Amino acid sequence: MTLIVRDPGFHEPTDEDDCAVFSYFCQAHDRFYRHEACGEGPHLIALHCEEHGPESMWPQPLTIMFPAGFEPPLSEAQLSWLQAERDAAQA
């Protein structure tokens, strides 16, 4: 099982950020994540920005399916983005 981690303490990316170098970090195994090769068992994956450190990812498939029930909750910017994406898809 692989879970994507968001945390209120993580950097919230904005359109003004010009970050270019990202990696995925498995918090469960305390090492960078490369297609479940970081260790056995469940994975807790966080986006790691070279400039900002841990960063909240934009909505992932589970958050798009169940945005109201996602823990931790989506930020206002993420909810607005998600609604705009839904509106564009329905147009």
Write up what this structure looks like.
- The protein has 91 residues and is α+β, with helices and mostly antiparallel strands.
- The protein is 22% helix and 22% strand.
- The chain has 2 helices and 5 strands; from the N terminus they run βββββαα.
- The protein has helices at residues 61-65, 76-90, and strands spanning 2-4, 22-26, 31-32, 43-49, 53-55.
- Strands 1, 2, 3, 4 and 5 form a 5-stranded mixed beta sheet that branches.
Any key phrases for this structure?
alpha+beta
Chain-wise SSE layout:
Blueprint: E1 2-4, E2 22-26, E3 31-32, E4 43-49, E5 53-55, H1 61-65, H2 76-90
Parallel strand pairs: 1-4
Antiparallel strand pairs: 2-3, 2-4, 4-5
At a glance:
With 91 residues, the chain is an alpha+beta fold. The chain has helices spanning 61-65, 76-90, and strands spanning 2-4, 22-26, 31-32, 43-49, 53-55. The chain starts with a strand and ends with a helix.
Q: Indicate the mean pLDDT.
A: 77
Give the distance, in angstroms, between the N- and C-terminal Cα atoms.
35 Å
Structural class label: alpha+beta
Shape: globular
* Biggest sheet descriptor: 5 strands, mixed
Beta-strand content: 15-25%
Per DSSP E runs of 2 or more residues, the count of β-strands stands at: 5
Poorly predicted regions are: none
What percent of residues adopt helix (DSSP H or I)?
10-25%
Instruction: Tell me the series of helices and strands, N- to C-terminal.
Output: EEEEEHH
Task: Report Rg.
Answer: 14 Å
- Distinct helical segment count: 2
